[in-house]
Task: inverse folding
DNA sequence: TATTGTTATACTCTATAACTATA
DNA sequence: TATAGTTATAGAGTATAACAATA
């Protein structure tokens, strides 16, 4: 089955018009414009569709939070610090699957913007205790509302019944295929 | 509800031991090691879980196709050329949501590896007709088998009933939230 | 004037190696 | 010896602006 009708993940503007059988030898002539491209196996690949969907959702996130100038990853780090005041960078690293080496600049940024701070830990002078500043807490309380709005848009797009099924499915993929490499094991 | 038991997307090694209520003031002391981190809202965010799952699936793809030294994006481009011999770069661009400007180096690479070639189009001397070489076709026939194996692993991880539901859900997200910006519209 | 491919550039995310200071 | 944070660096992926050749 060569897949044309079922229509793949490409701009709606490209898909709307009509599909055109690309069977044997439609090679050379694309003059009439708006040719339907056959991306056959891709719309049946979990990874491909997952990727396209994730990009669409992230784009929606950034658009919704534009006035806060925040990226999904930054929001995740802030949320983890908010829920676990005093935790170490390595904890954030393992919790979110971000390498500790890549977390440094991220925390730097949040510190520069005045949202988080690194506090010395007397018991272990190698590490820092991460906390939100008052400004950071205020920022998050406003941001959460926006992210919730974004989330509602996504869930609306998904449809009622699908919502409760998607998250467990994702969790199964993560658990089974091996979670993100936090650090260690090359 | 603060979410602890439901257990989020983090390395299984971190999750297995036991969850620890992080309610009021568990701030300073993380000495006992292996502390459960509360990433509260994140496992309920579609975008976050989508991202973690997509990374896991892509990682599995790369692992499965290690001997071919191929990335998901490269495979996608090769597949589109294979199914639409003679198409232009701009067609690949719109079909896969890759900016035409970023596609250049990608095609360059596939050409350097001898898998694809750019043929001049007499009718439109601005564009090239993309084709797989004989080597590229042979490569793809072997690669498809490997990607199919990867796909089976992913679908096994997902579980029987979930498989048929996931793809339509992804398609709905892509369609509704706006597809990937191919080019144009800033 | 618009389209196709291209270059240059930049920013984000991810990845590895190696260093430091502590433990 | 191992751990926490850091630096430097490199590679993908994505983004914009501007240009040449052609339509």
Result:
């Amino acid at each position: 089955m060569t897949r044309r009708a079922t229509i793949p993940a490409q701009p709606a503007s490209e898909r709307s018009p009509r599909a055109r059988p690309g069977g044997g030898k439609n090679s050379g002539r694309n003059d009439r414009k708006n040719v339907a491209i056959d991306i056959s196996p891709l719309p049946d690949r979990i990874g491909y569709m997952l990727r396209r969907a994730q990009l669409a959702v992230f784009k929606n996130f950034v658009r919704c939070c534009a006035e806060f100038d925040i990226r999904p990853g930054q929001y995740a780090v802030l949320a983890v610090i908010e829920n676990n005041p005093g935790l170490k960078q390595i904890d954030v690293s393992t919790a979110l699957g971000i390498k500790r080496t890549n977390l440094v600049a991220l925390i730097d940024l949040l510190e520069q913007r005045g949202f988080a701070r690194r506090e010395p830990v007397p018991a272990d002078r190698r590490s820092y205790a991460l906390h939100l500043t008052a400004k950071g807490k205020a920022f998050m309380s406003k941001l959460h509302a926006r992210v919730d709005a974004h989330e509602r848009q996504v869930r609306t797009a998904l449809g009622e019944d699908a919502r409760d099924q998607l998250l467990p499915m994702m969790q199964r993929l993560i658990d089974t295929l091996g979670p993100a490499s936090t650090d260690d094991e090359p």
